[in-house]
Amino acid sequence: MTQSPLPPSPVSGQPDYLERLNPEQRQAIETIDGPLLILAGAGTGKTRVLTTRFAHILLTGHARPHQILAVTFTNKAAREMRDRVGALLGGPVEGLWLGTFHSICARMLRRHAEYVGLTTGFTILDTDDQLRLVKQVMEPYRVDTKRWPPQGMLGVIQRWKDRGLTPDRVTPAEDSEFGGGCARRVYADYQARLIAVNACDFGDLMLHMTEIMRTRPDVLAQYHRLFRYILVDEYQDTNTIQYLWLRLLAKRAGQPSNIACVGDDDQSIYSWRGAEVENILRFERDFPGAKVVRLERNYRSTAQILAAAAGLIAHNDGRLGKTLRPGREDAHGEKVQVVSVWDSDEEARVVAGAIERLRADGHPLSEIAILMRAGFQTRPFEEQLMTRGLPYRVVGGLRFYERAEIRDCLAYMRVLAQPADDLAFERIVNVPRRGVGTAALQKLHLEARQIKGPLTAAVARQMADGTAKGKSKAALQSLMQGFERATETLAREGQVVAVEQLLEDVGYLAMWREDKSPEAPGRLDNIKELLRAIGDFQSLEGFLEHVALVTEAEDSAAEDKVSLMTLHGAKGLEFDSVFLPGWEEGVFPSQRSLDEGGLKSLEEERRLAYVGLTRARRRATVLHAARRRIYANWQDAIPSRFIEEIPADYVEHSGQAMQERRLTAAQPSVFAFGPVSSRRPNYGHAPRVTDVYDASPTDITVGTRVFHQKFGYGIVTDVDVDRLQVQFEKAGEKRVMASFVEVAV
DNA sequence: GTTCGAAGCGTTTTT
DNA sequence: CGCTTCGAAC
User: Fold this and answer.
1) What is the CATH number of domain A401-553?
2) Integer distance in angstroms from CA A596 to C1' B8?
3) pLDDT in tens, A402-427
């Protein structure tokens, strides 16, 4: 890293990294001291500003690399920032405090672990461990786990942690909500158990560090001296504990708070996991004298898409206020397409067909995405893409490190690295099946309690004193021998050989080799991949730390495939063409969301819609179906309110199904579908949408000759409220909605 | 302790 | 519909 400023550009007299920035971007970068809020709308060059600002602080000599704290939410964002800062500075920079909230806290906590009763080598638990632990802790309370599942309890604890509440800070009033009033005590016991096994869950990384900085002024002062500048990405996604942690670090007596937060309140979509939009809305009050810079020039999308998105998001209240403007002159573009289809199957066909056409026109599939509200919506699209031979990838499924076989292997490694890791030991003690079930494990727990030691010590003890007998004795003995041999190998030949030997020795690999299920070979491949990855690290501990904090799979974005993912998963990404299916009331906005959170949730859903639209560079296509298959049965659906919230000027409707909500929006029933069948009251005086619907309600009876947009002419053979059985001349017998046919003349 | 079948249930997800 | 989970029978 060089401390001298870069040579100025010969043309402008500015360092060349400041060239081609717009005035707002420049301001966000060149405002170095004092609190700064950068409101960065979608596609306004946020990452560029953040990284350039980082480099600028270094290159102007305001700080050395290790004196800047830069926090992100995801490892991906951290990696990108690290790479781009490196690129600006002409090479990788060492010693940066740049990472996710959690990785930075882990790094800090390893230094100060003793203040919360841990040792520096503490384990970071995965969700399986957490659940196992909370189950154990709940047991003595005899909670009805039907009503109060351990997952729910874990959720309550996590939310408390997100809010910075240690067990003693949970008020009795807040306690009563779950588990019949024992949640607070379970939480306290859970924390005690974590300390006892020298472990942390994810929430603890933040909670412990915040607690340490609250109670140890010397530690806090140390970081105050260290960090001259703080950069925070995605500030709208911070939860309370992250906010408290940042505030502790940023507020330095007698010195300015050099904290720069980048975020977009319109893209806050994670309130359900503890994010508090209020943090960003409150920034100017939290940090008096804060400068606010708005980045509103969007270099990503066409003017039409931007106007559509802006019109939509304008329906939200309580925004900081920000309007995306097109940053490129050339990008007028096409209107947002809204396609009305008959049912969810047709929706998938329409999208797949459109993708085929895009491909035929030379558009790479990697520039096409289908973004939906929920993961299960991918199915019909997968089927359609598959049958047409269009390559696709589903982003965000089960991640590599979440696979059972990988977690098993990791548990083996954890016991190898730290024999006192009871939770890891519990996971693998009977995998593969070796006849050590709950009964044997119970005995081991008792023994461990008596000797006040870990389970592995209890095993050794039982081997020695003859408590163990028969099958489980032999099994445990051979397991422990496996660990002993691996420990020797680890010292002599390193972690890769040791782990492979261990997994072989204890019969884990054999278990999958003998498994006849079709997934087994894939699992063995995954394990092979895992073994390969261990070699990339200095030590077993280093590898375990990495996998505890980095759960994401490797990016395979380079392949030319259509991306299928949730709207949440798409945040931060962009594609030339974006398909947004399932814009129907109840699906999007999600009914469940609305039921739980009312107006606040509706606004969050709307932000999600905004995020979806703004992912598109050139083409955005919204779809809604009149009937959707949900689980086993078909349900009628009306178009999402979000569709009509997009200003009509920027929308082009197509498709044959009902196109406007107006017909039915005021009606109580979601089944009201415009003028329909004979036995259905015709609500209100709704205007007709198209001539297709001009059949008078009473005209349709058995024997009526009707016309259907998709199936053509046919004779009605049965009427069931609003559904008809029709014998079509060409398409055969079909069941169709009465609203989708007209009486043939 | 294991295995098999019925019952239940069904957002969004990172670390 | 298709998955996971739990309980009963071997």
Assistant:
1) 1.10.486.10
2) 22
3) 888 899 999 999 999 999 999 999 88
